[in-house]
Amino acid sequence: MESKRATVFLLLALSSCRAKVEEENPEYWRSQARDTLQSVLDRKLNTNVAKNILFFLGDGMGITTYTAARILKGQLQNQTGEETVMTMDTFPNVGLAKTYSVDFQIADSAATATAYLCGVKTNLNTIGVSAAARNGACKTQKGNEVTSILKWAKDAGKSVGIVTTTRVQHATPATSYAHSASRKWYSDADMPEAAEDGCTDIASQLLNNTDIDVIIGGGRKYMTPTGTKDLEYPTDFFSRGKRRDGRNLIDEWQKMKTGKVAHYVWNQTDFSAVDPETTDYLMALFEPGDMRFEAERDPKMDPSIVETTEKAIRILQKNPKGFFLLVEGGRIDQAHHAGRAFMALHEAVALDYAVAKGLELTNEEETLTVVMADHSHPFTFNGYPFRGQSILGKSPLWAQDVLPYTTLMYGNGPGHKLTNGKRPDIRNVDTKTKDYVQMAAVPTESATHSGEDVAVLARGPMAHLFQGVQEQNYIAHAMAYAACVGADLRHCQGQTEAPALQSTLTQEGNLAGGAQGVRLISSLLCALLVVLVLM
Question: Does 109 participate in catalysis according to the annotation?
Answer without folding.
Answer: yes
